[in-house]
Amino acid sequence: MEVKGRAVSTLVSRLSSVSEQIRCESLSELRLMTKNDAQSRSLIVHAGALPYLSETLYSSSHLPQEDAAATLLNLSISSREALMSTHGLLDAISHVLSHHNSSSSSSAVQSCAATLHSLLVVDEYRPIIGSKRDIIYSLVDILKYRKSPQRSIKDALKALFGIALHQSNRSTMVDLGVIPPLFSLVVVGGHAGIVEDASAVVAQVAGCEESELAFRRVSGLGVLVDLLDSGTGSSLRTKENAVSALLNLAKWGGDRAAEDVKDLGSGILSEIADVAVNGSEKGKTKAVELLKMVASGGIDGKVFDDLQLNRLINPCSE
């Protein structure tokens, strides 16, 4: 371990070399080390690498920028507190993301978005990262940009999902225009994984008062209902996300949104019931809650009998 520590210290010290070649070689070695040797990560952090890695994100050369971003991602697995304590790190990540369609390497953009997702695992970091409007704006812009690689879109969606887990961040996300590109991805995303990830963010963002108008402008309610339709080929995870979105919209979007959800009528009940029966435990719970809400809007009792919904809504009544 002592030998490894000395080797790490030597590599980190070379990050401040006046020679670009030496700096690049050290970055490349550190990237491989953090990928293949979990024990080395804490040594690299303690050796003082983080400020150099953060600064390198501003590099106009793609290779060192990519190596620095990938190394930070690897370090975020076990050193989240150290990363969040590094002065200017979030600004450096924002710089990479904001230039996703110009000077930044696509690989660096993906690593930076993935690093955010890793950091957002920690509850107390969500309001901190969510307060960086420039980060949210850039992540949303990645979704909007027609030439964004699918990997960049997926990493941006995962970061946005983590940000949306904090209630107070959702209104900021709506304000910065996240709703239209999310629904665009849901409708024409093509790749099943993209649709699942986009609908997961939709479900979270639905949980704020500002979502009602934003959803209405993109006919979001209708899109969510379509996702539940078995004829659209949606995965079970996507259907669960649609259920969660409808439920959050009804709870947080105000009286009008709640009435809109209640007025969905009997046509959607069988699709919600499918999630209540076949979904994950969390999905089942939310589906039953949504069934009760839609039922409160006034559904013909015969429909309930035909679909055997009473057993789902009132499991102890028999």
TrEMBL record:
Gene3D superfamilies: Leucine-rich Repeat Variant (1.25.10.10). InterPro entries: ARM-like, ARM-type_fold, ARM_PUB, Armadillo. It comes from the Eukaryota. Residues 8-295 form the U-box domain. Keywords: Repeat, Ubl conjugation pathway. GO terms for cellular component: cytoplasm; nucleus. SMART domains: ARM. This is U-box domain-containing protein.
